[in-house]
């Protein structure tokens, strides 16, 4: 008995090296926790970044509803009462009745052309202004040297004190276009079943939005009606006579599925390089004199930024009439009156939904990923210091890339980029309150 008590006393003896090791681990975890809270929009958020969209505080937290829930409930009750009063009625408002909105057809073509111009400009700008991406997370930086701000949340970031590991990036890291299923008939068959997930192609959601708004693309046929549809007790019924479009098999996309599923922004950029506008390809020509290169680069950056704003503003106008759905927990998007039924959600609480998405109203941030980055005032200067991060501003990666290439700073992003804040030097950190 005495021997066992003596052994227990020997086991609980702690050496000074053990305490030092534990203290080091605690400090490291505290540093990582604070940086993660700052990245995820926790309580330690600096109020000066209130104008920058933040991700959810917790990965299990649902996205905020653009329209308040009380308004959605009131609309659902009004629609239910309207169906009771008039079970069979002809839908009069476009595009709910299957017809196009005439004033948005031209906007859809403008958005499509603006997207092509944007991708072409970005494919040229990234060859001059370097783009850095983190190896372990989605962080992106515009500049020759990646920043030193410890905001990495990737695998084993705690062992690296939340520092990023930078690699060379491309156009797909500057702006992202989430993909969705292409709908042949957005009113007659608005949902894609789970068994149809390999038969129907997936295309960029903003391209699908333009197609539903009136853009015609031969590779992605869609049904156009000339008469409105009827609603019988909430179900859509089309009494329009069968036309030539009805002969097209909805699920026959021979040779399109593989092309679309495995395509990305790089493919679009390559197609744009071979386009008919050969004059634009000379904007960034290494054989030109230095003054000509700088002038052409500045013009290209201005055109690219104008295309960005034209695409965003046009997409917002279309989304006011054409509904776009997004998952409340992941990045999935579906253009149409309803979300699809493909069981592919792997976000929080997907087990309770059997892999189905929790659909809700989408915003422009869900349709086009702007990917906010830190603003660099001197692209050839030192890397951004972690101790001075409260003095740095942010901007969408497209805007930052165009500004670094010579475009003027847009007025709507001056406050977000903190151009009116004087940043102290590295050796002046302790002297600033």
From TrEMBL:
Name of the featured protein: APO domain-containing protein
Record-annotated APO domain positions: 133-219, 326-411
Native organism taxonomy: Eukaryota, Viridiplantae, Streptophyta, Embryophyta, Tracheophyta
Record GO terms (molecular function): RNA binding
Pfam families associated with the record: APO_RNA-bind
Record organism: Malus domestica
């Amino acid at each position: 008995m005495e021997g066992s008590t003596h052994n227990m006393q020997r086991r609980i003896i702690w050496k000074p090296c053990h305490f030092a090791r534990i203290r080091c681990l605690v400090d490291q975890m505290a540093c990582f926790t604070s940086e993660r809270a700052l990245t995820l929009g926790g309580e330690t958020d600096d109020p000066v970044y209130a104008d920058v969209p933040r991700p959810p505080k917790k990965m299990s937290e649902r996205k905020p509803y653009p329209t308040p829930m009380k308004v959605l409930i009131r609309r659902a009750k009004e629609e239910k009462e309207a169906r009771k009063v008039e079970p069979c009625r002809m839908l009069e408002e476009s595009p709910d009745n299957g017809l196009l909105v005439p004033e948005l057809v031209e906007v859809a073509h403008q958005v499509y052309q603006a997207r092509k111009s944007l991708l072409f400009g970005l494919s040229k700008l990234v060859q001059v202004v370097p783009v850095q991406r983190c190896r372990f997370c989605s962080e992106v930086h515009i500049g020759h040297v990646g920043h030193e701000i410890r905001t990495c949340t990737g695998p084993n970031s705690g062992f690296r004190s939340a520092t990023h590991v930078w690699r060379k990036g491309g156009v797909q890291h500057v702006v992202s276009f989430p993909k969705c299923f292409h709908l042949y008939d957005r009113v007659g068959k608005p949902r894609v079943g789970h068994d149809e997930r390999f038969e129907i192609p997936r295309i960029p959601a903003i391209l699908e939005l333009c197609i539903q708004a009136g853009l015609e693309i031969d590779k992605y046929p869609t049904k156009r009606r000339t008469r409105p549809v009827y609603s019988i007790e909430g179900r859509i019924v089309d009494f329009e006579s069968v036309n030539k479009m009805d002969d097209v098999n909805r699920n026959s996309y021979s040779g399109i599925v593989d092309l679309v599923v495995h395509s990305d922004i790089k493919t679009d950029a390559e197609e744009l390089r071979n386009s008919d506008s050969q004059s634009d390809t000379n904007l960034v020509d290494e054989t030109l004199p230095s003054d000509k290169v700088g002038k052409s680069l500045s013009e290209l950056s201005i055109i690219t930024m104008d295309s960005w704003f034209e695409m965003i503003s046009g997409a917002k106008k279309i989304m006011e009439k054409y509904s776009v759905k997004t998952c409340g927990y992941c990045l999935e998007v579906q253009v149409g009156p309803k979300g699809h039924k493909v069981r592919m959600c792997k976000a929080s609480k997907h087990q309770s939904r059997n892999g189905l998405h929790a659909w809700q109203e989408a915003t422009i941030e869900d349709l086009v990923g702007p990917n906010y980055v830190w603003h660099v005032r001197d692209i050839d200067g030192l890397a951004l210091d972690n101790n001075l991060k409260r003095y740095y501003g942010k901007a969408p990666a497209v805007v930052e890339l165009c500004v670094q290439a010579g475009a003027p700073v847009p007025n709507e992003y001056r406050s977000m980029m903190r151009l009116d804040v004087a940043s102290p030097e590295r050796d002046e950190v302790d002297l600033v309150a």
